[in-house]
Amino acid sequence: MNQRISAPVGREPDGFAPWPLTGFAAGAVRPVPFDQFVVKIHSRCNLACRYCYMYFAADGGWRRQPVTAAPRVLERAASRIAEHAAAHRLPEISVVLHGGEPLLAGTATLAGFVARVRELVPEGCTVRAGVQTNGTLLTGERLRELARAGIAVGLSLDGGLAEHNARRTDHAGRPAWPGIRRAAALLAGPYRHVYGGVLCVVDPATDPERVYTSLLGLDPPAVNFLLPHGTWTTPPPGLPADGTATPYGDWLAAVFDLWWDAGRRRTRVRLFQEAIALLLGAPAATEALGLRPVSAVVIETDGAIEQLDALKTAYEGAAATGLDIHHHPLDAALAHPGIAARQAGRAALSATCLACPLAEVCGGGNYAHRYRAGEGFRNPSVYCADLRRLLHHIARRVAAAAVPA
Amino acid sequence: MCSDKSAGATGLPELPDLLTLGLSDLRALDHPVLSEVLAELRARVSGGPAVTLWTFDEFAPGDESGGVA
């Protein structure tokens, strides 16, 4: 986990149910089956990054979670995933092992769980498996085990230099960078075949060229830049309230130009590629942009079925559904207003977003970033101006390349 | 464009309409990055083997794999 948050907020007022928990006709949304299952295999982390949205955000639910998912929880999770895949005849599913730091569960547990899912799903259903890690626990031996188990590895870091990762420290304050650098080298070298890529959270206080160039130095096959989680009530760091500046849009536009003008595609950058897809009217898939139904669900360490983690930056309990794998099939979560709202496309957008020429491309941005206390999620993104800045920039660059002078 | 409930930055030029550009029309381009991206987008819309698109962002990769099969 390498997301940043500004400051925690508390609970919504008792008895208040923000949109879409009230005011939204979830039953009118045709549900799209889940095909991506985020399994919290370990709820704690060996790092103590103060900006982490999991441990220093609005929702303190992680404290109530067991440290690791018990064997019976993993067995039930595998069973529920397979049940869902069978019920909807899914040809392909994705299982993402997450946390906390999932490697704290041990590679044997990770491999065993993935193997069990593959064993239980119907014949003809392909299971794609991956683990998202801070990298500090990766060794050659563990990577061999993950590769043997058919598990891709995604690496979370804040840039390709020690200075970018200065705030990634363990609980004793020791820098995580040496371990991260070692992991990146192993993945780029002998274990490239399981290297999923890098997740990097944008920090507008850094030099975008220095960050991007240093990431290229780690030779990842793919990079995704994430905006730090924040809301209208707890704005992201450095974002002016009056929208007179667009620090995140400017930062990303600078990186886009470096990527675009390189003479060849040095690495895949998911945010940029999905933006181009949307601008050209092609199918795209990302939480950050567009209106594609979100078909991912979280299974917590104790078996609770939850919405995606970013919601935890809104208010205590924002990601909860009240369902769990011990008592409910995953299908039950499809009827939850929060899940349905993220599958509703334009019907979930604010009037402001609906009137915007970028509605189909921006899609309102990441759902969690639309939250305002006392109202809920039917607002533009707190990053509205930055997203507009970036999308306009990308559109101009693509138009110029597509229509030669 | 955005209401008083948004950041409200103004002053951007008109947005180019890229929807008028067909993916096949863009085939003969001299831009290596765009050419590679377009090749992948054509695979998404072609009649070939289905490409599953995964929406969850807090997992690298940036390609279309949801992990290793």
UniProtKB/TrEMBL annotation, chain A:
Protein name, UniProt field: Radical SAM core domain-containing protein
One annotated GO molecular function: iron-sulfur cluster binding
Superkingdom field: Bacteria
Residue intervals of the Radical SAM core domain: 41-183
Coiled coil: none
Organism per entry: Streptomyces harbinensis
Swiss-Prot/TrEMBL keywords: Iron, Iron-sulfur, Metal-binding, S-adenosyl-L-methionine
UniProtKB/TrEMBL annotation, chain B:
InterPro entries per UniProt: FxSxx-COOH
Taxonomic source organism: Streptomyces cheonanensis
Name of the protein in question: FXSXX-COOH protein
Superkingdom of source: Bacteria
